[in-house]
Each structure stands twice: as C-alpha cells, then as structure tokens.
Specification:
Blueprint: E1 10-12, E2 23-31, E3 36-37, E4 41-43, E5 48-57, E6 61-75, E7 82-96, E8 105-106, E9 111-113, H1 115-125, H2 161-181, H3 183-191
Parallel strand pairs: 7-8
Antiparallel strand pairs: 1-9, 2-5, 3-4, 4-6, 5-6, 6-7
The protein binds zinc ion (2 copies).
One zinc ion binds at residues 140, 142-143, 145, 153, 155.
Protein name: DUF177 domain-containing protein
Organism: Glaciihabitans tibetensis
Pfam families: YceD (PF02620)
Amino acid sequence: MSHFTPTPFTVPVFDLLHRPGEMRERSLDIVVPEGFGNAVIGVKTGAEMRVDVRLESLHDGILVTGNVDVVAAGECVRCLIDVEVPLEVDFAELFAYSVDEAFDYTVSGEHVDLEPLVRDAVVLSLPFQPVCQEDCLGLCPQCGVRLLDNPGHKHEEPIDPRWAALAGLDGLTEANTQDVDGSASSSTEEKR
Ligand SMILES: [Zn+2]
Ligand SMILES: [Zn+2]
C-alpha cells in the first residue's frame, strides 16, 4: 500500500500473511491521539491505553483477539462530579484478506489497523448513565448541593404550592414594573 501511514493502532502482519498456523502476540501502549465516546463519558485525547493482542494467521485472513485496558472519564449523571471508569474490554475479530460484506475489517497491505476495532469495543462497553457510586443521591432539587456531601440535608417544610405560585407571581409583577420603568429609575426605586 503506497499510501500507508502508520498510526499507534497499526500492527504489521507481513510475517503472518498467508501462513495459516503462524501466530504473534503484541502489546501496544498507546497515547490516544483522538478522544471518543458517548455524550456523557469517553476516552479523552491523551489517555493511556494498553492493547494486548494475539494475531493468528488463518486461511481467510488474520484473527485478532485481545483486550484493551483504558480509563474512561466523564460526569456522574446524578450529581455531575467527575467520574473515572476503568474499562477492560475483550474483542475478537477477523481481518479478512478480501473485501467482503461478511467482514467488518480487512487486512490493508501488510498491516491491520486496530483503531476502529478498539474504538467500537470500548464505546460498546461505556456506561450510558455513569454514576460516581451506585447509591449516589444526586443534587438537592431545591438548592443544588450534592446530597452525598451533606448527609441529613433538608429544607424547611415546603411552602404550600398555591402560596408559592402567588409569591412567584408577586415577584414577577414587581420585576416587570421595574423593567417598564427603565433601568435608571428602577435602580433608584430599588434602593428606596
Ligand atoms: Zn454522583
Ligand atoms: Zn437543598
């Protein structure tokens, strides 16, 4: 392949091509060049990733089995603090010699590119609702403090919702009057 550009995820397999029965093991220590993940958690750019693979030459291509070790980073969906989730993900895929719909991955020239395989495996194992701990209580709906940091936190008995609505309306009316008066006069009025 004349256009081949090596990346941290490419592994040479020239010594395995069309030699069924041959096998190699490789370990890659990768500094992730470009982060990836879902909306709430992912592997950040620059994260350290360890990929251990076994490459076996088969008739159809190269069978790649192995696992990836990496720490994903994101936010607790309940209390919004930073969370780190260590992941260890196994994978096994055939990199075929021929481009065929039956196979997701192909040997390109004398290399296999593990990046799409590793990314897919990691993304599939990411939590959709990461939490800092299983019993995270989230944030106080009234004032927003993190409830795990404030055991026993509570407020006065909630005001009767009908009164709360009236109080809100009252506040709104005042604010509206001030807005209509214009900024200069309203600031004078506020001080009175
Ligand atoms: Zn939390
Ligand atoms: Zn509160």
